[in-house]
Amino acid sequence: MVPFLLVMNFITFGVFGFDKWQAKKHQWRISENMLLGISLLGGILGAASGMILFNHKISKKSFLVKFILVVLIDLVFFYRLIRH
Question: Between the CA atoms of 33, 37, 40 and 42, what dihedral angle is there, to the nearest 10 degrees?
Answer without folding.
Answer: -140
